[in-house]
Specification:
Layout: E1 6-10, H1 11-24, E2 29-33, H2 35-39, H3 43-49, E3 55-58, H4 61-69, E4 76-78, H5 88-93, E5 96-100, H6 103-111, E6 118-123, H7 138-146, E7 151-158, H8 171-182, E8 190-191, H9 195-200, E9 208-209, E10 235-247, E11 252-253, E12 259-260, E13 265-270, E14 287-290, E15 293-298, E16 306-309, E17 321-325, H10 331-337, H11 342-347, E18 355-358
Parallel strand pairs: 1-18, 2-3, 2-9, 3-4, 4-5, 5-6, 6-7, 7-8
Antiparallel strand pairs: 1-10, 10-13, 10-17, 11-12, 13-16, 14-15, 14-17, 15-16
Bound molecules: pyridoxal-5'-phosphate.
Pyridoxal-5'-phosphate (PLP) binds at residues 33, 35, 79, 160, 194-195, 210-213, 220.
Length: 359
C-alpha cells in the first residue's frame, strides 16, 4: 500500500449542516464562511457543495479569485477587506464585496480609481477589540461612504462576537446592544452571528448570518460535540497501522523516551504525524480508534508516525484503519486534549494529506 493517511470529506454532511443553519435561522440569509481553504476541507469543493448558500466569506482576494475561476458566481465577501490599493482593480472586476474596518482602507478607497463601484460592509468593533470602527464613528463613516461614488448604494453593517461560544456569557448581549445603538437610523442589512450566534443567540440573526465551523460539522461551543448540536462531522482523518512490535517492561517509546512500557506489551505504529497536521502537542493517553475501539497514543508524536498502546486490542493487525478524528471520534474532544480548538486542527491538515470526497 502507499502511505495510507487520508482525509475523507463527507459532502452530504456538509449540505446537511447548511440545512441546520437554515433551520436555526430561517429568516436570515447565509454567508457561508469558507476561508482558510474551507477550514482545511478544500475551498472549491466546499463552495460547490454549498451552492445553496447565499454568499461566501473568505479572507483574501486570492481565495476569492480561486472561487471565481472555478465558476462560483455567488456574492463573495472579503472579511478583512483589502490590504493595499493594488487589490481594488481585481475586487471591482470580479464583483467582490469588501469589509471596511479602518480609516486606512477608506483613504485608499478615496484616492484610488476603480472601474466599477464595489459593494461594502462597514465593520463596527462592539467589544471584540480586534478590527472594526469604534461604535461612536459608525454614523459618520456611513455618511462619508454614502458620498463616495466608488461604492455601490447598498451599504451593509456588521460586527463580530467575541464570547458567543459561552452560552452563559452576557457579553454577547452587551455587544448586540452596542451594535444596534451605533447603527440606529442607518439603512442597511446587518450581520452579527457566527456559528455560535446562529445556534445559541437568535437575537443576533438579523438579515445575514455568517456560520463557519458549524458547516463543517463541529460544535462552536466549549462544552458540546457536533452530535449534541444536530451537526454531522464532515472531515474524518484516518491512517493505518504500519507495524506492531513487542517490547519489554522498561523499554522507552519514541523520541526522548518519555513514555516507558509498564509491562511487556505490543505497541502499534500509525502512519500519521505532525507533518500531516496531527498535533505534536497531543499528550499520551489521547484516544484513536482501531477496529471501533479506543486505544491510547503513547510517546511523542513524530513527523510521520505515532505510537499506540495495543494492550487492549491483541487482534489488531498491520493494515487496520485508524481514525484520528471525525465521524466516530469527535474532533472537539481531540482538540481539547491537545490544548487547542477544532478550528486549528481542521485548518492544520497539510498539503500531503490526500482528500477523498464522499457523498
Ligand atoms: C471566521 C469568521 C466567521 C465564522 O466563525 P465560526 O466561528 O467559524 O462560525 C464569521 N465572521 C467572521 C468575520 C469571521 O472572520
Amino acid at each position: 500500500m502507499t502511505r495510507p493517511v487520508r482525509a475523507a470529506i463527507d459532502l452530504k454532511a456538509l449540505r446537511a449542516n447548511l440545512q441546520c443553519v437554515r433551520a436555526a435561522a430561517p429568516l436570515a440569509r447565509v454567508l457561508a464562511v469558507i476561508k482558510a481553504n474551507g477550514y482545511g476541507h478544500g475551498l472549491t469543493r466546499v463552495a460547490e457543495a454549498l451552492h445553496d448558500a447565499d454568499a461566501f466569506g473568505v479572507a483574501s482576494v486570492e481565495e476569492a479569485l480561486v472561487l471565481r475561476e472555478a465558476g462560483i458566481a455567488h456574492p463573495i465577501v472579503m472579511l478583512e477587506g483589502f490590504f493595499e490599493a493594488g487589490e481594488l482593480a481585481e475586487i471591482s472586476r470580479h464583483r467582490l464585496s469588501v469589509v471596511l474596518h479602518h480609516e486606512h482602507q477608506l483613504q485608499i478607497l478615496e484616492r484610488t480609481d476603480i472601474a466599477r463601484p464595489i459593494s461594502v460592509w462597514i465593520k463596527i468593533d462592539t467589544g471584540m477589540h480586534r478590527i472594526g470602527f469604534p461604535p461612536e464613528l459608525a454614523a459618520s463613516i456611513y455618511q462619508r461612504l454614502r458620498g463616495n461614488n466608488k461604492i455601490t448604494a447598498r451599504i451593509r453593517l456588521m460586527t463580530h462576537l467575541a464570547n458567543a461560544d459561552d452560552r452563559s456569557d452576557e457579553y454577547t448581549e452587551r455587544q448586540l446592544t452596542t451594535f444596534l445603538s451605533s447603527i440606529d437610523g442607518l439603512d442597511g442589512e446587518r450581520s452579527v452571528a457566527n456559528s455560535a450566534g446562529v445556534l445559541a443567540w437568535p437575537q443576533t440573526h438579523m438579515e445575514w448570518v455568517r456560520p463557519g465551523i458549524m458547516l463543517f460539522g463541529v460544535s462552536p461551543f466549549l462544552d458540546s460535540v457536533a452530535q449534541q448540536e444536530g451537526l454531522s462531522p464532515v472531515m474524518t482523518l484516518t491512517s493505518r497501522l504500519i507495524a506492531t512490535n513487542r517490547f519489554r517492561r522498561g523499554d522507552p517509546i519514541g523520541y526522548g523516551g518519555g513514555w516507558i512500557c509498564p509491562e511487556d506489551m505490543t505497541v502499534g505504529v500509525v502512519a500519521i504525524g505532525y507533518g500531516d497536521g496531527y498535533p505534536r502537542s497531543m499528550p499520551a493517553g489521547a484516544p484513536v480508534l482501531v477496529r471501533g475501539q479506543r486505544v491510547s497514543v503513547i510517546g511523542r508524536v513524530s513527523m510521520d508516525m505515532l505510537c499506540i498502546d495495543l494492550r487492549g486490542l491483541p487482534q489488531a493487525q498491520i493494515g487496520d484503519e485508524v481514525e484520528l478524528w471525525g465521524r466516530n471520534l469527535p474532533v472537539e474532544e481531540v482538540a481539547r486534549l491537545s490544548g487547542t480548538i477544532p478550528y486549528e486542527l481542521l485548518c492544520g491538515i497539510t498539503q500531503r494529506v490526500p482528500i477523498v470526497e464522499q457523498g
